[in-house]
Amino acid sequence: xxxxxxxxxxxxxxxxxxxxxxxxxxxxxxxxxxxxxxxxxxxxxxxxxxxxxxxxxxxxxxxxxxxxxxxxxxxxxxxxxxxxxxxxxxxxxxxxxxxxxxxxxxxxxxxxxxxxxxxxxxxxxxxxxxxxxxxxxxxxxxxxxxxxxxxxxxxxxxxxxxxxxxxxxxxxxxxxxxxxxxxxxxxxxxxxxxxxxxxxxxxxxxxxxxxxxxxxxxxxxxxxxxxxxxxxxxxxxxxxxxxxxxxxxxxxxxxxxxxxxxxxxxxxxxxxxxxxxxxxxxx
Amino acid sequence: xxxxxxxxxxxxxxxxxxxxxxxxxxxxxxxxxxxxxxxxxxxxxxxxxxxxxxxxxxxxxxxxxxxxxxxxxxxxxxxxxxxxxxxxxxxxxxxxxxxxxxxxxxxxxxxxxxxxxxxxxxxxxxxxxxxxxxxxxxxxxxxxxxxxxxxxxxxxxxxxxxxxxxxxxxxxxxxxxxxxxxxxxxxxxxxxxxxxxxxxxxxxxxxxxxxxxxxxxxxxxxxxxxxxxxxxxxxxxxxxxxxxxxxxxxxxxxxxxxxxxxxxxxxxxxxxxxxxxxxxxxxxxxxxxxxxxxxxxxxxxxxxxxxxxxxxxxxxxxxxxxxxxxxxxxxxxxxxxxxxxxxxxxxxxxxxxxxxxxxxxxxxxxxxxxxxxxxxxxxxxxxxxxxxxxxxxxxxxxxxxxxxxxxxxx
Lengths: 283, 410
Hints:
The structure holds two protein chains of two kinds.
Chain A: E1 3-4, H1 6-17, E2 32-40, E3 43-44, E4 53-57, E5 60-61, E6 64-67, E7 74-81, H2 89-104, E8 110-116, E9 120-127, H3 130-138, H4 148-158, E10 165-172, H5 183-192, E11 196-202, H6 209-218, E12 222-225, H7 231-243, E13 246-250, E14 259-267, E15 273-276, E16 279-282
Parallel strand pairs in A: 1-6, 7-8, 7-10, 10-11, 11-12
Antiparallel strand pairs in A: 2-3, 2-13, 2-15, 4-5, 4-14, 6-13, 8-9, 14-16
Chain B: H1 2-36, H2 44-50, H3 54-72, H4 87-103, H5 106-123, H6 125-134, E1 145-149, E2 152-157, H7 161-171, H8 180-195, H9 199-212, H10 217-230, H11 233-241, H12 255-272, H13 277-289, H14 293-306, H15 310-326, H16 330-343, H17 348-360, H18 364-376, H19 398-407
Antiparallel strand pairs in B: 1-2
Helix pairs in contact in B: 1-2, 1-3, 1-4, 1-5, 2-5, 3-4, 5-7, 5-8, 7-9, 8-9, 8-10, 8-19, 9-10, 10-12, 12-13, 13-14, 13-15, 14-15, 15-16, 15-17, 16-17, 17-18
């Protein structure tokens, strides 16, 4: 088991996200990437190697490699609730938190922003120009209902087929009131997308199980906040935690080609908790 | 003790005299307001009765019923005295009724009175709420409605007394089940409430309407729409997630009951009026919820060939996309998505629907393209997405419907 180079990782990702006819197991290498968070007593564990993990694809053990994430830029897509209920202090805190996360990104790393009320607006596509994202944040006006499901979906799609490590941060303070998509649509899309989704909830959204389901499906985490006072620190923690994750890669062997593949990732060392996406879809 | 009884006796006598006078004044003001009111305008008549204090509503209601009874029975043969009614009050009330009937018909006047109270409800609810706030739950044992915004609980409120009063007026016309204006009145008031999300008020309203007009197409349609709306994200967010006052809960049936009830109304409507295209589309959407995709597609196919209204056609295509995707026919689903997007190019629901259908078949390029379409729309630009108004049903055309109703009186 070896560490893959950056170039190889990029090729692997392109293969994994290209259309169905190219994503076959037999004719060319099909590499699946799995973003993994390893924690011990809630604290990220560093220094692990591929040998420390065990990965099962539809219950079949796989041979895994580890990609060097230090050389792989983070693509942070923010999906922010700007419905009427975020008016006032919540929005101020939210803008501050987003600004802090942008500030922690490295120059070569990218950010994008999608806002949603009932209207979903993918305002800035992935760009290394963080000021362009900041400029949008300064002009957000809260209004309307909450199409959080549609907003999260559009954000996940914005992270598709772009080189790098996609991180989607969804913030909402309310339960969905306006989306076209159903919760099951979003979870289905999450299984097909490659992004790790962190959901941040305050207000009534803290009691919304879909946010947890979405995070679980993508190997992310849900953060429930009493108020938005600590939002800035939480957004920064998300990025720090994301950087501490491991990126495993494997070429599926001994499993059927098509359909949804259930994944299970375990640490060989006792006491380590693993969070990883629940599976992947091969079209 | 003795002194207290005496005081009570004097006070009661004074109160009775005072009430009698107040009641007649209230009746005079009412008759004048009905005559003076410009339909559809928030004029003095509307504001006067919207702001009627809670304490005046009971005496007003009493004398108003007495008065309407006299419009039926001008000679007061079936005389039922009001509590503490004086001879002067009895005579003057009869005189007012007799005078009114010299210049207008009974039903004609009741129509105008009902229109006034509908306008009070639609145009000046803020004043009524302010009066309620000063005397909450007057005569009805406390607040009865939750107010929520974007899924979050805001406040409790009383039911709108003027609306309930209007219902009693229209029930008093000679033959409400065949009276065109009564149908139009229910349609107008219901459309307004659907447009503004007044679902708590609407339920007893439509129940009353259905009792009075059991075969009214619009009442059946609005009933179906209301039960659909109860299952919408906006309502379920409150039912399932909102932090409500202790010891309270929204009076909303379970989702399966909502769906079955809504389907029942649309089925009744389609059996009596098979050309009611939007009812067919809504029925089809509910079939999707039951995973009956084949049956749903049949409904949408019929609707698409008969719909003339672009919004209804949009819904038919959008839901047909979902039904076809459910059947695994992704190419047919995408066709419907494209048809919907052509009808309303700035509707994000069609683009998102197209994207997810492409994603489901593994075509990531096609899944990303509709997102680019949404991105290309101007951030501050106008977006016309009929999905956002789906649960409003007839409320989408509320202003027009109210205008049509009031035009019957001009």
